[in-house]
Amino acid sequence: MTSNTIATAGLADPTADPAADLTAARARNEDVWRRSSRLLYAGQIDEFVGHWCEDASYEAALPVPGLPAVITGHEALHAAFSGLVAGARSIAAHDVRFHQTDDPDVAIIEERLVAELADGSGYENRFIIRVTFRDGRIADMLEYYGQFAHQDLLRRLGFGS
């Protein structure tokens, strides 16, 4: 091996542009996020879950009674999200801010969710979500939200006590 080969063995390509890589990662990740969110809010749960890895997990940072703190796998994700959207006439995300981190597989999303529930009442909450992407799909989601508003929502939908 030459001295140059020894100096770069096992290291990332020194000619790669990290900024370009992060720009591409952001575009890819944001596209997955926006497409999956639109499907969720439209109640298209089969298609929504298709944007998640088979072994994906959703975790609530502030768990509330009525739902497990961690939900793993397509079947469990489908059941949980189906139940949540079934109780709504409409769901929309506002003030969405997508923040790509220096890790090309991790993003932080801020949003304000507004829903009109089937009983005519409303729901509004702010979310901060850490999302890990893998192979163009959602692998892991850790969600922070207004705990009391979320607990009240679940109670009204029949999930909580």
Mean pLDDT value: 88
**Termini Cα gap:** 67 Å
Tertiary shape: globular
Structural class estimated from helices and strands? alpha+beta
User: Percentage of helical residues?
Assistant: 25-40%
Query: What are the low-pLDDT stretches, counting only 5+ consecutive residues below 50?
Result: 1-8
Largest sheet: 6 strands, mixed
Order of helices and strands: HHHEEHEEEEH
Strands, total number: 6
Strand order of the largest sheet: 2-1-6-5-4-3
Number of helices: 5
Q: C-alpha Rg, in Å?
A: 19 Å
Strand content: 35-45%
Summarize the structure.
With 161 residues, this protein is of the alpha+beta class. The chain is 36% helix and 37% strand.
Q: Could you explain how this protein is built, in words?
A:
This protein has 161 residues and is α+β, with helices and mostly antiparallel strands. Helices cover 36% and strands 37% of the residues. The chain contains 5 helices and 6 strands. The chain has helices at residues 3-8, 18-41, 45-49, 74-86, 147-156; strands at residues 52-60, 70-72, 88-100, 106-117, 122-134, 137-145. Strands 2-1-6-5-4-3 form a 6-stranded mixed beta sheet. The longest helix is centred in the first third of the chain and has 24 residues, at 18-41. Mean pLDDT is 88; it is low at 1-8.
Furnish the topology, listing elements before pairings.
Blueprint lengths: L2 H6 L9 H24 L3 H5 L2 E9 L9 E3 L1 H13 L1 E13 L5 E12 L4 E13 L2 E9 L1 H10 L5
Parallel strand pairs: 1-6
Antiparallel strand pairs: 1-2, 3-4, 4-5, 5-6
Primary descriptors:
161 residues; alpha+beta; 6-stranded mixed β-sheet
